[in-house]
Amino acid sequence: MHTPAPTTGARPPATAYDAVLCDLDNVVRYYDLTRVTALEQAAGLPEGTTAGLAYAPGLDLPLLLGRITPEEWAEAITAGLTDRVGPERARELGRAMAEAPSRADETVVALLRRVRERVPLVLVTNATLRLHDDLAALGLGDLADHVVGSAHEGVAKPDPAIYRIAAARAGVRVDRCLFVDDRQENVDAALALGMTGVLFREPADLHGPFGFGRTDGRTGGG
């Protein structure tokens, strides 16, 4: 089922939701894989090979559930690439993937800070045990009222349990939550619980659902 984002600029009814639950990666935080791409080119690998291996469920899910550390994840990536590029280059790629820098989209951050003035904000993210340190490094330690991370909770989206945990932290019923995510399957899981869902593609997708004009809360950024 495809659920388009609500129409930009449309203000929802005042009683539409009592809390906002928002994804982190590819909504607020973006990773820079430039070094990984350069290493792939030098090794003769197609671009995206390392990410495809790293984000495969067999490697990615144990990391996101807190069953392995980021260091162990890097070692698994290395093992998966060694036969193709040799141990030294495989190790470089594994480390580059695990240590890829990230940035925050300041436009989205500004919108979230503004909506938090109205209702509780909970970050709901499939992330590693480093989540709180990562947020602090980006200057986002105070962005949300609560942070619900998969590795800390032992459950990952789109499992309904993590949505219920997030709603409980916000102190509202699940059907009184607005949920934002860049993955359709995660939005669909929220809709199945009775939440209002927003499929994120760009910051403008949040203006209508949050009840803001196109320029409210904008400070620049990308």
From TrEMBL:
Keyword Hydrolase: yes
InterPro entries referenced in this protein's UniProt entry, alphabetically: HAD-like_sf (IPR036412), HAD-SF_hydro_IA (IPR006439), HAD_sf (IPR023214)
One family name in Pfam for this protein: Hydrolase
GO molecular function: hydrolase activity
Protein keywords: Hydrolase
Gene3D superfamilies given in the database record: HAD superfamily/HAD-like
Signal peptide interval: none
Record's protein name: HAD-IA family hydrolase
Organism: Streptomyces flavovirens
Lineage, top ranks: Bacteria, Bacillati, Actinomycetota, Actinomycetes, Kitasatosporales
